[in-house]
Amino acid sequence: MTIIGIDLGTTNSGIAYLKDGKPVIIENDRGERTTPSVFQINHRGEIQVGTVAKQGYPSYPKETVLEVKRLMGTDEKVVVAGNQYRPEEISAHILSYLKKSAEKFLGTSVTEAVITVPAYFSDSQRKATQKAGEIAGLRVERIINEPTAAAIAFGMNQLEKDQHILVYDLGGGTFDVSVVELFSGVLEVKSSAGDNRLGGMDFDNLLVDWLIQRYKDEHGVDLFSFGTADEILQRKARIKAEAENVKKSLSTQNSAKFNLPFIAIHNNGPISIDMEITRSEFERVIRKLADSTFEQVDKALKDAKLTESDINEVILIGGSTRVPLIQELVEKKFGKVPRKDINPDEAVALGAAVQGGIKSGQIDSLKGLMVIDVCPYTLGVDVVKNVGGQLLPGFFDPIIKRNSPVPITESQIYTTIKDNQDEVVMGVYQQSNNESPYVNPELKISKEDIRVPGIPLRPAGIEKIEVKFTYDINGKVSIEATVLSTGKKINKELDLQTGVMSEYEVAAAREKISQEWNQSELYDEVKNVINRAEKVMDEANDQERAKIEMLLTNLKKSLSENNVANVKKYEDELTDLLIELV
Ligand code: AMP
């Protein structure tokens, strides 16, 4: 059974599989090697994923979803064509499309995948990704980090060479950096750092701000300040799409133009934009963001206890590393030209496919490639401390330290702080820096605290509670707390988390998503008849029009009810009627 590798990106996704021991990209049903991570569903239930959806975005912003990866692991809802979705459901739609494409390409059913996530994804973001896979009908037993996947794709062919590699991964919505050591067939991640809310989209947004400001300076008009909410939304969508085009052009040209004819009507006159921006102006606009990525690079180097000169190869992945300024800054920092022979759009999916091969046994991890990754965060609990005789809550106590190799289990022992204390309650936190002694409420990763009741009533400090954290190879956390005097244990999978669906919700979503695809495929089958009928209706007489209209209404109603038998019935009747009339 083939386990496919999926790079589920913020802007683009890719799929690959292992063929004769080598990872190979799977083309989607349009023959493309990557698929825009864009989902669209119209009021007729017709689904589009990928290029068609992306192209349709400026015209149908309310029916289109971009960048859903940024919402993974949150409870935020996405409204598409008037319906509410969870981020996992939108991702599941994208994954369903990729699964279908892979099945078509391989000619067999695909039920399991290795999906990649930014190294810096939290526990709930990872779980949300896994659940999205399940909703799409894919078993996802392995989640791997994107830079690690890229290093695997790169390292596969040079396993025997001992070297340090730095992977700089700037995608559409996330930035990751990993320092990796390759030695005797082992690929060991030494450290990871990043920012899961920084990417090429932020460059686009800065360009939009630049354009709006320039227009305001030159014409005294704020392009987002007039018109209906829908008009503004559409205008924003068009400007954003154009900003991305301009940005991409500036990767190869010294200047580029925003070309937006009839973007708005203001004071009864049409507004068209034809404005030039030079590459150096663009670089000035994005410079701060570009620089901020190097703070993370420094952090990763420091954690790996290495300096720039210890790095033998720098690999650039993620579409945004095509920006010349990024390449220049990386080159300057390391004093060497980054590797250009790795396709930044494909490396992650290829590495995921190799990991799929290791999992399915197609690649022997002992003889071939062994991958060791790290936990990018420090994980711990909040504790009460005795400060100058006063008990103060809110201190962070680390249990698993940042950049520990995974899987890992670590424990700490805590004592009661009050006489006759019969319960201990602790929140679970992740910290990206080890500096602060206090917990940051925003970094609490458990909705429910660890609650250990039933502690024997003794004087303060006598009873001991051991708290054990396990971080598995997929980056998932489980916790065990033991009252040492009684041996009583509390086990906790962090499953009751904000932004993570329950099993019940996943099952319901799977049903919903598969129904929506059935409906879309059904619509696809009858789309031609509907289009023809609507055309014929325009030229028909009243009597004919009434007949067509009745069948069309019935057909559309059956479609919305997903009633296959009735759809077929009305489709046949309508086809017969059209043949009769034409
Ligand atoms: P990824 O998530 O790795 O697919 O990266 C997608 C991001 O790369 C998007 O923000 C794209 O706009 C950006 N991108 C793709 N091609 C280019 C290019 N030629 N120049 C600049 N940015 C690009």
Summarize the structure.
The protein contains twelve helices and 28 strands. With 582 residues, it is an alpha+beta fold. The longest helix is centred in the C-terminal third of the chain and has 37 residues, at 503-539.
List keywords for this structure.
582 residues; alpha+beta; Actin, Chain A, domain 4; Substrate Binding Domain Of DNAk, Chain A, domain 1; 4 domains; six-stranded mixed β-sheet; binds adenosine monophosphate
Describe the structure.
By secondary structure, the chain is α+β, with helices and mostly antiparallel strands. The protein has four domains: 3-199 and 287-374, ATPase, nucleotide binding domain (Nucleotidyltransferase, domain 5), CATH 3.30.420; 200-285, ATPase, substrate binding domain, subdomain 4 (Actin, Chain A, domain 4, Alpha-Beta Complex), CATH 3.90.640; 377-493, Sandwich (Substrate Binding Domain Of DNAk, Chain A, domain 1); 503-581, Substrate Binding Domain Of Dnak, Chain:A, Domain 2, CATH 1.20.1270. It is 37% helix and 29% strand. It contains twelve helices and 28 strands. It has helices at 51-56, 87-106, 123-135, 146-155, 200-219, 229-249, 279-303, 324-334, 347-360, 503-539, 542-560, 564-581, and strands at 3-8, 12-19, 22-26, 35-36, 39-41, 47-49, 64-65, 78-80, 83-85, 112-117, 139-145, 163-170, 175-183, 186-195, 255-266, 269-278, 313-317, 370-375, 378-387, 390-400, 404-406, 408-415, 424-426, 428-431, 450-452, 464-471, 477-483, 488-493. The strands form eight sheets. Strands 1, 2, 3, 4, 10 and 11 form a six-stranded mixed sheet that branches. Strands 17-12-13-14-18-21 form a six-stranded mixed sheet, sandwiched between helices. Strand 12 and strand 13 form a beta hairpin. The radius of gyration is 27 Å and the shape is globular. Bound molecules: adenosine monophosphate (AMP). Residues 9-12, 171-172, 199-201, 244, 247-248, 251, 318-320, 322-323, 345 line the site of adenosine monophosphate.
